[in-house]
Amino acid sequence: MTTQTSTNSDLRSGAAKAGPGFDGRALRDAFGSFATGVTIVTTSGPAGADIGFTANSFSSVSLDPPMVLWSLARTSSSIDAFRNSAHFAVHILSADQEALSARFASKSIDRFGGLALDRGPDGIPMLQDCMARFACKLAYQYEGGDHVIFVGEILDFSHSARKPLVFHGGRYGMLLPKQTAAAEPADALSNLSSDDLLYQVSNAYFRTRHAVIDKLEHHGWSAEEYAALSIIGREDGLCIPEIVARSEKLRGQAISAAIVQKLIAHGLLREVDSTDGQARIRLTPEGRLSVMELIAIRKSSEADVQGSLDPSEVQLLKHLLSRLGNSADAVTSVEASKPRR
Question: How far apart are CA 320 and CA 240, in angstroms?
Answer without folding.
Answer: 33
